[in-house]
Design a protein that fits this description.
Structural class: alpha/beta
Number of domains: 4
Number of strands: 16
Strand order of the largest sheet: 2-1-3-4-5
Distance between the termini: 43 Å
Strand content: 5-15%
Radius of gyration: 24 Å
CATH superfamily of the largest domain: P-loop containing nucleotide triphosphate hydrolases
Largest sheet: 5 strands, parallel
């Protein structure tokens, strides 16, 4: 243990006494803790440290924690696994938020060490090896899914691969946009050439032009030598620009120029060179929705002429057992240890859980479960605290009324008088949260209000989300 590099844990909690205990426990396992009472303080601490945490631990607080997770992702801390502290009652909601693990209150030192050890084991072996596996080009017939919405997306991707134009892939975070882009590349005439990936959100804005287009020596402070950008390096191949909406308008304009002319002009250069690269763009969500609320160059939007959308896991639950079984087999093959198959009971549980981070979250959970499971088959007993959710999730899935049969919200009280408006509003918010599985962004969108307004109303109503 002493020879391993020190891991960094970001603790976000305003309960000072408990934070000290957790910090002491983490130190016993070789973790150095950065402690903050608020999310704002956490970002300031991380920026001062100039490093990203290896894991994040925060207390679940319904909409507040959900907003915190979204903020952490926007700040580029997302691949760091997030551990949530919650009560038994809150466990389902915390898991829906995308936690790598949920620690039930009160958290003991042993339970924290178990969670951190699970992260260490999976990241040291399985996660790295599986990431390398997935980074290799894959074919369309390796994409797992038989539901109609998924096969429709695959068919659209095949048609796009047969063309030569720029492609846009839409879909929620974690649905597999990079896998689809890789399959498009593998099915094209460029399959023998480079397939490169740039996430436009994780590269700092002041460096993204250099990353894409390159720079000359002395083009800016720190440019000590000439560097070719990703577009030139991918000459003859395919370049995936993930989260393309994170580009500034100026960078979008430079990209439009390249797509129109094929010319790449490095920073600090008065002349350019030609590059033959097929660009695949990807966004988390819908580009039309993104462009309506943020700056996006209409010329660039118009050049993304071949579009298709990958459905989220909740719209293709029938694919989850086969997808999970395939991921388990890949993990076992690449790592050489752990279960190589999935029991029917475990598959049923996974199918009935919510996966707000989609395939990426399912993959992450399976990696961690595989690291600690015993036996050749991942069974219901290996799912630990997830297994306790089975009856609750089945009730939500099997007994929830269809939208057209949901009971109307009562407008009158037992005496026939109109109920107060705030009570009716509270019922509507409760219904929306239940209907959309606690996905607060979707709840706010369906109610026609901003997310901050929704959280304020939750606070005013007190218990509307219970």
């Amino acid at each position: 243990m002493a020879t391993e590099p020190e891991r960094q844990l970001l603790l976000i909690d305003d309960r000072a006494a408990e934070t000290r205990l957790l910090k002491t426990a983490a130190a016993r396992a070789g973790w150095r803790s950065l402690c903050a009472e608020t999310l704002h303080d956490a970002f300031a601490i991380v920026n001062r440290a100039a490093t990203r945490p290896d894991a994040i631990l925060l207390r679940w607080d319904d909409g507040v924690a959900q907003a915190a997770i979204e903020s952490l992702e926007r700040k580029g801390m997302a691949p760091a696994p997030i551990l949530l502290i919650a009560s038994h009652k809150e466990m389902a909601a915390a898991l829906r938020a995308g936690a790598a693990d949920v620690l039930i209150e009160p958290v003991t030192a042993e339970r924290l060490l178990m969670a951190l050890d699970g992260l260490r084991q999976s990241e040291a072996g399985a996660l790295r090896m599986l990431t390398e596996k997935i980074s290799q080009p894959i074919r369309f017939d390796e994409l797992i899914g038989e539901t109609s919405v998924f096969t429709d997306a695959v068919a659209a991707a095949r048609r796009a691969a047969a063309g030569a134009g720029t492609i846009l892939i839409e879909g929620e975070a974690g649905v597999g946009k990079q896998a689809f882009a890789s399959a498009i590349h593998a099915a094209s005439g460029r399959a023998s050439q480079v397939f490169a990936v740039v996430n436009c959100r994780t590269v700092p804005r002041n460096m993204i032009d250099s990353e894409l287009f390159g720079h000359e020596q002395g083009a800016f402070p720190g440019a000590f030598q000439r560097r070719a950008g990703q577009i030139v390096q991918a000459h003859g191949g395919t370049l995936l620009l993930d989260e393309i909406d994170a580009l500034s308008l100026e960078s979008q304009g430079r990209l439009v120029h390249f797509l129109q002319t094929g010319e790449v002009r490095p920073l600090g250069s008065t002349a350019g060179s030609l590059a033959d690269v097929r660009v695949i763009a990807a966004v988390d969500g819908s580009l039309d929705d993104i462009a309506a609320g943020a700056e996006f160059d209409p010329a660039l939007a118009g050049m993304l002429d071949a579009r298709f959308t990958i459905p989220p896991l909740r719209e293709r639950r029938g694919d989850i057992p086969a997808l999970a079984a395939d991921l388990i087999a890949v993990i076992q093959e690449e790592v050489g240890t752990g279960p190589g198959a999935l029991s029917m009971e475990a598959a049923k549980l996974l199918q009935n859980l919510q996966w707000p981070r989609n395939v990426r979250q399912l993959q992450s959970v399976l990696i961690r479960l595989s690291a600690v499971a015993e036996g050749d088959i991942l069974d219901i007993g290996d799912l630990g605290e997830l297994a306790t959710l089975l009856p609750r999730i089945e009730a939500n899935v099997d007994r929830r009324p269809a939208p057209e049969t949901v009971s109307p919200i009562a407008v009158f009280d037992e005496k026939g008088h109109l109920r107060p408006l705030d009570e009716i509003e509270a019922d509507i918010i409760r219904l929306a949260i239940e209907r959309y599985d606690g996905r607060m962004s979707e709840v706010a969108r369906r109610l026609g209000i901003g997310r901050s307004t929704l959280y304020r109303k939750l606070g005013e109503l007190g218990g509307a989300s219970a």
